[in-house]
Design brief:
Layout (H helix, E strand, L loop, with lengths): L6 E7 L13 H18 L4 H6 L2 E12 L8 E11 L4 E9 L4 E13 L5 E2 L3 H4 L5 E2 L16 E6 L13 H10 L3 H6 E10 L8 E10 L5 E10 L2 E12 L1
Parallel strand pairs: 3-7
Antiparallel strand pairs: 1-3, 2-5, 2-9, 3-4, 4-5, 5-6, 8-10, 9-12, 10-11, 11-12
Helix pairs in contact: 1-4
């Protein structure tokens, strides 16, 4: 981590509409507040959406790795911090830290962002002028996330992309993918398990009007209180997103 990089924090009180039936913050809600923190930092550094959009560019997330000690709970006042740690020719690396008021770490997130040309929808090389205010470290190495195992005998469920699933980049907001990934696991599973770790990669944009197929399977680990779920989201058999999630029993 580059010690010169700027860390930015916001406070957030967990509302009931951000929680599940167990009064834990949901993963989509967590992601949305995380991104709010990063967007506020960009605005603070005069590198917000208005700045990059006038260059006909937009930020796109390609990876998250999420480690959970515990999810925030209803009514808690939580600190969401973010730090743009490093970048290379095409990838920008940003970390997030979610802590309670006493400073206890609840969730740690590593993420990868790229810059997309909004006309061609293709990835652009990182512009030094855009990234400079974050004071992150320039590196040559490409950081690798753990490779995900293929699905062997998955079940599947379809979802239609709705208007309000689309964000200002005119594609599905990343938080929406988690609804598709998790919903297929069902009420009984989701009400009796909590997330411990997530590894997710976004491979292709999904647009308004697409019908996505959410594929999934589960596997009991050597620790009988833990289960791994593996996921793929496809449009017309084309892979758009894949994930592995480690769960603990409540």
């Amino acid at each position: 981590m580059n010690n010169l990089a700027q860390r930015y924090s916001i406070k957030h009180e967990i509302a009931y509409y951000e929680c599940d039936i167990n009064q834990q913050m949901t993963l989509p809600s967590l992601i949305q507040v995380m991104i709010k923190a990063s967007e506020e930092q960009s605005d603070h550094l005069n590198r917000g959406s208005s700045y990059v959009n006038q260059l006909n560019l937009g930020w796109v997330i390609t990876n998250y790795e999420i480690d959970v000690d515990r999810m925030p709970r209803l009514g808690e006042k939580i600190i969401f911090s973010t730090l743009a740690t490093a970048y290379n020719k095409f990838f920008c690396y940003r970390d997030f830290y979610i802590e309670d008021e006493a400073g206890n770490r609840l969730v740690t997130v590593s993420s990868v962002f790229v810059i997309m040309d909004l006309s061609t929808r293709k990835i652009k090389a990182v512009d030094e002028e855009i990234i400079a205010p974050y004071e992150s470290e320039k590196i040559k190495k490409i950081k690798r996330f753990n490779k995900m195992q293929p699905l062997s005998n998955p079940k599947t469920s379809p979802f239609k992309v709705r208007f309000y699933d689309i964000d200002s980049n005119k594609h599905v907001n990343n938080a929406i993918y988690f609804n598709w990934l998790l919903d297929v696991l069902g009420y009984e599973f989701l009400s009796t398990h909590t997330i411990k770790n997530v590894n997710i990669r976004f491979d292709k944009e999904i647009e308004f009007g697409n019908v996505v197929d959410s594929y999934y399977e589960t596997e009991i680990t050597d620790n009988e209180d833990q289960i791994i779920s593996r996921h793929q989201v496809k449009v017309s058999e084309e892979l758009c997103c894949e994930a592995e999630i480690l769960w603990n029993k409540l």
